[in-house]
Amino acid sequence: MSRKLVPYFLLIPTLLIIGLFIYYPAVLTLKNSLYRVSPFGNRVFFVGAKNFEALLHSPSYQQEAWTTLIFVAVSITLGLIISLLFSLVLNEKVPGVGIFRTIVFSPYAVSPAIAGMLWSFLLNPVVGYVSYAFLKMFGVQSHWLTTYPSALIAIIIATIWQNLGFNIIFFLSGLQGIPDSYYEAAKIDGAGSVRRFFSITLPLLSPITFYLAIMDIIFTMFSSFGIIDIMTQGGPGNSTTTFIYRLYRDGFIYFNSGMASAESMILILIMGVVTFIYFKFVQRVVHYR
Amino acid sequence: MKKSTKKKLRVVIIEVLLVVIALIVLLPILLALSMSLKSPGEVFSFPPTLLPHKLYFQNYIEVFKKVNMGRFLLNSLIIASIITVGKTIFGIFAGFAFANFKFKGSNLLFAILFMTLFMPAELLLVVPLFNLMRIFHWVNTYWALTVPFLASATSTFLMRQHFMTIPKDLEDAARIDGATSMKFLFHILIPISKSMIGAVAAINFVYAWNLYLWPLVVTNSNDMKTVQIGLKMLMSNQSNNNWGIIMAGTLIALAPTLLLFFFVQKLFVKGLASSGLKE
Hints:
The complex is a heterodimer of chains A (289) and B (279).
Chain A lengths: L5 H27 L2 E3 L6 E3 L3 H8 L1 H32 L6 H9 L6 H11 L6 H10 L11 H27 L3 H9 L4 H31 L1 H7 L11 H10 L4 H32 L1
Antiparallel strand pairs in A: 1-2
Chain B lengths: L1 H35 L3 H4 L14 H9 L2 H32 L5 H9 L6 H4 L1 H11 L5 H5 L6 H12 L3 H9 L4 H12 L1 H16 L3 H6 L8 H12 L4 H21 L1 H11 L4
Helix pairs in contact in B: 1-15, 3-15, 4-9, 4-12, 4-14, 9-12, 12-16, 14-15
């Protein structure tokens, strides 16, 4: 085979899969979002942007938008802060630190469904240790998963915990990439440890933090479906229904394909913006080098 | 003297902090382990006991009686293995194409692939993807559970990134010796890239084993369900809220990925670290 053709040949499987199972469904989604299926499923009407209008004006969708925003923003912010603090300790060169690193990375292997199972157990009012600890410390017996807002807090805790391993792996590799000489120089100049953290560590970690923030957005927006489905099923009421949970409900419980497609389009749009921002940022980094 | 005492004190404080952090992270799994070894009588004792009075292994056997856990484990293993092999091999091919060839349209194809990097189709596009499976008559088959995942932008990028770090001279030398591109890939590039390929395979295996929404919607018979879905069944209707059995099932589902992670942790860290920013 001519060398010229080799790369195309090598790319066939990947492009075929991506085309058939990502691009083609995306086009179908766009099309379906413009149609409505009759109640008996036997006729299809073109409705234009009506699905989007109905969606954006629906109070439940607006509420779910807020839930998603709060869930994503709180999980990511707290998750990144906790991960960074843990990473600073794990970056110290003391005996046995390797074992501790292995332990702390381990939530990476845990699936969303399993994280949901573990935290359902820990927060269970009868058998759960965390729930019992709360009772002991604050004298309140909270029914975590069946009351608002504690159900939302519960899925945030599970999400942050499951993400710790992934975040810390990255922060630690970032910290190890900062040359010791930077800190030595700052020390000689009389900078204290807090000052060193804010003027050396944090700025040099910002590319990694940015990357993690984007990966965590994807995780909390989508993969957390497993956590929510196991722990709360979107309840109580609608209070832990995020965009992805609503999409599942409309698509597979209410069989409202037009609405579900409109929701998918909005999610694609959001992720398109995220991709665009990432692309811009990466280009800047490349330019920088 | 004073300085060395201060240094020692610092080490002690850090070690204590490390223990606290490790406990916080590992506690959910440790407490689940403790619960999974409690007898039915002890499961509901209040306040909950920290450790079981007597180790009760029966819960692990009960899991297999309550739900078809053996079959679920087998399904997950089959699906995760197929996805891992496909994603890794096709990732090597596509990564090699982008890293080692200059060809017409490469920028365009790269952009097409790049745009899907943050689009987890099995979640974002779950409804049309499911409709597609119905058209193919793939609902409730291994086809639906594996084929859409056989290639991805992530594996391609990881391999491309790695191949770009290998000196060009190597390929030039091979070509002068008369090796074709494919010979170079199979006889030189793949053998020297073993650890990166291992890393990509390990990451893909964990990803596939942990899939949840897709197997939930695309399987309807018990014979096709995966271990993650089996957990939901175990919790929702099977065991009268006996958390000993539920946690035993959870740990069975977690064991394969957790053990894999402990054994080849260096690979995971290497693979993940190179997936970041160094575009």
